[in-house]
Amino acid sequence: MDETSTDVQSVDELMQRITDAFDSLPRQLKSVATYIEQHRQSVMMDRTSDIASACGVHASAVVRFAQRFGFSGFSDLQAVFRQAYTGAGGSQQTYQQRIRKLIDEKAGEASGVSVAREFIAASRTGLDELEAGLDDAQFEAAVEMLSQAENIYVIGVRRSFAVASYIVYALQHTKKRVHLISGIGGMFREQMRSVRKEDVVIAISFAPYGKETQYCVRAAQHRGAATLVITDSQLSPLARHASASLFVKEGSAFAFRSLTSTICLCQALFIALAYRLELNVEESKETGGYDD
After folding, report:
1. Same domain for 153 and 265?
2. What range(s) does the SIS domain occupy (predicted)?
3. How far is C-alpha 173 from the geometric centre of its chain's CA atoms?
4. What is the phi/psi pair of residue 61, to 5°?
């Protein structure tokens, strides 16, 4: 029954175990794993029946998921999240629940201004979560990868295309050679053919994860290029084999997800890279590496 034991001490430890076992999980349990990864701060209060409904599975599958990782039942698994988030994240989650309740109560009656304010509030919540969950080591690894890259290729489709276009625009203010994999005319394969071992491919994708983006990541890895994935979950098919991964979960209201946090993360990445590159230039000047 259990591949692990109940000596899990933290949410991060539990999520790492889930990530390691994800490929071997049955389809129904994969759905539960994905839900838990994407709702870390609410899962401690969610009812088993609600999670089952959201995942399209029977409630018994949620219990089996917990047992798969050594818990006697789902409430024991929830306790791990409750211990982690009751103090630090409880007020934030309560605020998110208030937003959702307000939306339900105002269905069909909300004014334009109230819609705007609720969406702005949801975006602000997303930014708070981005700051709290930023992985310092992965972010530094991403900056280092980009600073060493011969070429930087960027791929993002559908709602991620706007973000991909922005980061290409920003990175073109550095001395790096930057390329947008636009797929115009359906030519994703052709545009990926120039990727080499010394290059970095930035892939931006969120559930349900664009097939084109997944192809570009596989192609980059086949060619020996480094891959930087910006996505929403450790269980993302793009993240599990990436050279570095940055995770961002957008706030949402009225069934629309914001792009605020993703754009902010990309801007921070660009600024950190630009700072690193300029610092390297200054150090080279001091050692006589550049002409006056």
Report:
1. yes
2. 142-284
3. 25
4. -70, -35
The answer as to whether 96 is a domain residue is: no
- What type of residue sits at position 279? L
Q: Is 48 domain-assigned?
A: yes
CATH number at residue 70: 1.10.10.10
**Do residues 176 and 198 lie in contact, with contact meaning Cβ atoms separated by under 8 Å?**
no
Question: Among 241, 199, 234, which residue's Cα sits nearest to residue 217?
Answer: 241
Query: What is the residue-level pLDDT of the chain in tens, covering all 292 positions?
Result: 444 445 656 777 888 888 888 888 888 898 888 888 877 777 878 888 888 888 898 989 999 999 888 888 888 888 888 777 655 444 444 455 555 555 565 555 667 787 787 778 877 887 888 888 888 899 999 999 999 999 999 998 888 899 999 999 999 888 889 999 988 888 888 988 888 999 999 999 887 788 888 888 888 888 899 999 998 877 777 887 788 989 887 766 555 677 888 899 999 999 999 888 885 545 545 555 544 4
* Domain hosting residue 147, numbered range: 136-285
Q: Are residues 193 and 263 in the same domain?
A: yes
Total domains present in the chain: 2
